[in-house]
Design brief:
Blueprint: H1 5-9, H2 14-27, E1 33-34, H3 46-58, H4 71-85, E2 95-98, H5 100-112, E3 118-123, H6 128-135, E4 139-144, H7 160-164, E5 166-171, H8 184-196, E6 200-204, E7 227-232, E8 245-249, H9 251-262, H10 270-280, H11 284-306, E9 319-323, H12 329-338, E10 344-345, E11 347-348, E12 365-369, H13 374-386
Parallel strand pairs: 1-10, 3-4, 3-5, 5-6, 6-7
Antiparallel strand pairs: 2-8, 7-8, 9-12, 11-12
Helix pairs in contact: 3-10, 4-10, 5-6, 5-9, 11-13
The chain binds pyridoxal-5'-phosphate (PLP).
Pyridoxal-5'-phosphate binds near residues 102 and 245.
């Protein structure tokens, strides 16, 4: 059976390759310590699980959910963003539920792109920024994230021919994989650029609650027109399996996105929204989560510092974007860590970055997702120190 041209042009999803390497070790009887995929392994909070279970009982007859999310869900989101970022979002027109951020990222270009139009995305990057664009018939132009610039995108680097057909700019802070935060100046610049050039800026803020010292801000604190924000409970509340999040912002842009979504899915299951409401009303579990990741971050970062690698302590997210020696490169270091004598899975930066004009900004980095337990991180730190990297 032959797939579509669009599908056959795509490579495999990078994390499918990581999974394959892990399976290979497992088949050989080795259980690796897996820092590969950013999927939290701690349990979903009890308060969330019981709200979902209760939701199933309360809603005895099923019925389709609301396309845009139940009133109570959107109202709770609105209250939460007011408390967290100090912004006013009208639950009726400025918030819509999603099946997690991934589907929203993938489907967003369908609302704004015509054949051949451009989007701009960060590099290294979250693959659906490009994949959704390609499926919508568009082209993706990448802006590199460089350590020297605090991993901030430089909009000045957008070429004129790209700017002429530019419809969406994706930004993602706190950033996967770099862990970087946006500065206030960066957000101001992004809003100005979007408004001056009549481009939509979509800010993927799904890691906003995973910070250590400085609380990340939202781009919506800096501007509203031409701005949408993606949010998700996957990481904040260990709810990756539940598939729930929201998009909020400029009501004209949101109306177009809602129109696309009514043609694709039938909304987020209401009992999942019940769980999400409970999650948003509880900050205690989020604080515990942050404390746990801080401990793991410090254990892992100090191990790399001890072997002479540059200090790469992230201010946010549960990723460590570790610089490795240029003469080795990301793939060689990741392979060395994957050797059965070490048994640590990381993601080579090269795999999650695009080669643009012969330059790959992830070439000399590996990414570690701090999802194993604290005990496993301690064990991994010892292995890193002994690994002759
Ligand atoms: C930058 C970024 N955006 C979106 C997502 C998707 O999250 P969700 O589980 O909400 O689909 C991820 C998941 O890893 C991510 O890293």
């Amino acid at each position: 059976m032959k797939g579509s041209n669009k599908l056959s042009k795509l490579g495999t999803y990078a994390f499918a390759d990581v999974d394959e390497l892990v399976n290979d070790l497992t088949r050989r009887g080795i259980t690796p310590i897996d820092f590969g995929v950013g999927d939290p392994q701690d349990p979903t909070p009890e308060v969330v699980r019981s709200a979902c279970a209760q939701g199933i009982e309360t809603r005895k007859s099923s019925g389709y959910p609301s396309y845009i999310g139940a009133d109570e869900y959107r109202e709770t989101v609105s209250e939460w963003v007011k408390g967290r970022f100090g912004i006013d979002m009208d639950p009726k027109t400025e918030i819509t539920s999603t099946l997690g951020a991934k589907e929203a990222v993938f489907h967003m270009p369908l609302a704004f792109l015509n054949e051949g139009d451009h989007v701009v995305a960060p590099n290294p990057y979250y693959p659906p920024y490009e994949r959704g664009t390609l499926f919508a018939g568009g082209k993706c132009h990448f802006l590199p994230l460089e350590r020297e610039n605090g991993y901030l995108m430089d909009f000045e680097q957008i070429p004129d021919d790209v700017a002429r057909s530019l419809k969406i700019i994706w930004i993602n802070y706190p950033s996967n994989p770099t862990g970087a935060l946006a500065t206030d100046e960066f957000y101001k610049e992004a809003v100005d650029f979007a408004q001056d050039n009549d481009v939509l800026i979509v800010s993927d803020e799904c890691y906003s609650e995973m910070y250590y010292d400085t609380k990340p801000r939202s781009i919506l604190e800096f501007g509203y027109e031409n701005v949408l924000v993606m949010q998700s409970l996957s990481k904040r509340s260990n709810m990756t399996n539940y598939r729930v999040g929201w998009v909020m912002g400029d009501k004209d842009a949101l109306a177009l996105f809602r129109k696309v979504k009514t043609n694709i899915d039938s909304g987020t299951p209401t009992f999942i929204q019940d769980g999400a409401i409970a999650a948003l009303r509880d900050e205690a579990h989020v604080k515990r989560m942050r404390d746990g990741y801080r401990t793991k971050r410090d254990i892992i970062c100090s191990a790399f510092e001890d072997v002479g690698y540059p200090s790469c302590v992230p201010p946010a997210t549960f990723y460590v974007w570790q610089e490795v020696p240029a003469e080795k490169g990301s793939v060689e270091v990741a392979k060395r860590l994957l050797d059965p004598s070490v048994g640590i899975v990381t993601t080579p930066g090269k795999w999650i970055s695009k080669n643009v004009d012969g330059y790959n900004p992830g070439e000399n980095f590996i990414r570690l997702a701090l999802v194993p337990s604290i005990e496993a991180c301690k064990e991994a730190a010892e292995k890193i120190r002994d690994a002759e990297l």
